[in-house]
Design goal:
The protein is an alpha+beta fold and about 350 residues long. The chain has eight helices and 20 strands. The structure holds adenosine-5'-triphosphate. It is an enzyme of class 7 (translocase).
């Protein structure tokens, strides 16, 4: 069931569209993430849902009802922002209890019991008496999360809640957020510019660019089947090629990039047309060079290695081929300036 919906939403600032025409629907209990580069309109979208902004056109609906004019405190949303926004003069307990000021504790519990329950949910038992400045950044964000969840909101809105934390804390907190979200089954709209984080935590992801939604899908679909050049290169490393179709019989496509010939999956394009496709770095594998008298096999690139990054389980190679940058991710640890790499036709995705 659709819980939260944006329908043709537009929002302008001084005549410039921060959101051009955004339509999204988030199902009940879903963990839905907006990801995109700085300035693409993620925060504006979240603020529209929170009721901190109004759309210039289009509608925001909760459970099918237009919420135009409904103030934030009546929207049944819990919000956590990037900066902790805890009240410094209140203890941790008081900060969490503040979340209950409008609605009180859920039926059958006292305020004190509810605060204890929330502190335990975010792993801060025993820390209720502390002041916010006696907590680490990650702990402060847990308090902010507990405060937002206190009144059992219908929708949880999280705007880059982890961006001020270091990498390890970020990973820990994102696991907790995900586990809590699952346990409570609360519809969640999460904003991040970090595509890896978006893939890791979400049921579905909307990739945004310049005030528009480029693609909505599961993390797997976004990663494996990008539909636009922007999504292909924003989400994860990717190798994007522009190719001239040589022949396109039903079962496969023959295409040329620079001087190399490629065998690709079938595509709806005629000989002479230009198509674009991408191949993920981990789908390029290091191959033995062909013997000098044999013809070069298809889908084979001889690349110049510029930089190699050892990542533990794999090595990432930044290479050049025919004037292009090629990224290869391989379990091998190659030690060569020049390598042959190849890919299976099925590794190529058209967009
Ligand atoms: P970031 O990741 O940097 O927070 P974002 O994707 O959340 O970016 P928004 O904050 O939604 O992007 O901003 C979208 C666009 O709208 C930007 O160009 C921004 O400069 C502009 N904008 C946002 N808020 C205002 C405002 N109050 N007044 C004028 N312009 C604004």
């Amino acid at each position: 069931m659709v819980d939260l919906e944006l329908d043709g939403v537009r929002r302008e600032y001084a005549g410039t569209a921060a959101l051009a025409d955004v339509s999204l629907s988030v199902a009940e209990g879903e963990f839905f993430t907006l990801v995109g580069p700085s300035g693409c309109g993620k925060t504006t979208t979240l603020r529209l849902v929170a009721g901190l902004e109004s759309p210039d056109a289009g509608a925001v609906r909760f459970g099918g009802e237009d919420v135009r004019g409904v103030p934030t405190e009546d929207r049944d949303v819990g919000v956590v922002f990037q900066n902790y926004a805890l009240f410094p003069h209140m203890s941790v307990r008081e900060n969490v209890a503040y979340g209950l000021q409008f609605d009180g504790p859920p039926a059958g519990t006292t305020k004190e019991e509810r605060v204890d329950e929330l502190l335990s949910m975010v792993n801060l038992e025993g820390m209720g008496g502390r002041d916010p400045d006696e907590l680490s950044g990650g702990q402060q964000q847990r308090v902010a999360l507990a405060r937002a969840l206190a009144p059992e909101p219908r929708v949880l809105l999280l705007d880059e809640p982890m961006s001020a934390l270091d990498a390890r804390l970020r990973e820990q907190l994102r696991r907790s957020v995900k586990a809590i979200q699952r346990e409570l089954d609360v519809t969640t709209l999460y904003v991040t510019h970090d595509q890896e984080e978006a893939l890791a935590v979400s049921d579905r992801v909307a990739v945004m660019n310049a005030g528009r939604v480029e693609q909505v899908g599961t993390p797997q679909a976004i990663y494996r089947r990008p539909e636009t050049a922007f999504v292909a290169s924003f989400v994860g490393d990717n190798n994007v090629f522009e190719a001239e179709v040589l022949a396109s019989p039903p079962e496969s496509t023959a295409a040329r990039v620079a001087d190399a010939e490629f065998e690709l999956p079938p595509v709806d394009a005629a000989a002479g047309e230009t198509v674009r496709f991408c191949v993920r770095p981990e789908r390029l594998s290091v191959a033995d060079p062909p013997s000098p008298d044999a013809p070069s096999p298809p889908n084979r690139l001889t690349v110049d290695v510029e930089t190699a990054e050892f990542l533990g389980d794999t090595t990432r190679l930044y290479c050049r081929w025919a004037g292009r940058r090629i990224v290869v991710r391989t379990p091998d640890v190659p030690d060569a300036d020049r390598l042959d790499v190849e890919f299976e036709p099925a590794a190529a995705t058209f967009f």
